[in-house]
Write a structure and sequence with these properties.
Blueprint: H1 4-26, H2 40-67, H3 70-102, H4 110-131, H5 137-149, H6 151-161, H7 179-229
Length: about 230
Amino acid sequence: MNKAFPILGILTALLLSYALYQALDVAPTEQTMGDVQRIFYYHVPSAWTAFILFTVNFVASLVYLFRRNPASDIVALVSAEVGVVFCTIVLVTGPIWARPVWGIWWTWDMRLTSTLVLWLIYISYLVLRRFSSSGETPILAATLAIFGALCVPFVYFSIWFFRTQHPQPVIGGGGSIDPRMLHVLLINWLAFSCFALLICWSRYRLEELQREVEQAHALESLTQSPRSSR
């Protein structure tokens, strides 16, 4: 990795620390929910980051299907892995926020259920990538990724078209937010996005090296097999 990676790492750590300070100390306390509402600054940016990563996975999967470019296949894999992590944060922080506010941990409304389905689709994608040894695995995974990507806009717009217990969007869709809260929200989203980029960058390089090693072992086996047969 070049020198830009440690610089990005330091900047991301500083930005995450500043975002944490903004979320816990600077942002005003919500009058109805109190301090538990501060989970909002992690729940929403995690969802937005997951949606972006799944969109990257969708585009990279399309590129791979049309061009069979190994680099796009790695991008698809890495973005799905990191996207699942952020989607998991959404599914964990949501019930923690809902319990003191709604009085329940979970309700099977359209937004929550569709988010869970989205998570399960990409978990299936990663299981396929991990345990299938077929040469057609990248193609099958890319097809599954395209199907999963169709669920992303459905999750986002579900609270616009269905009556759900989930709050309306804070930006558009009839929702509203204090400008100071919006400022802190965007700072946290920027911090989460930089963190996701850092992880994807590191994971991409690791996957690239792993594939190079596997190819080297495969070539070595091919060159040694004629000798062993003599």
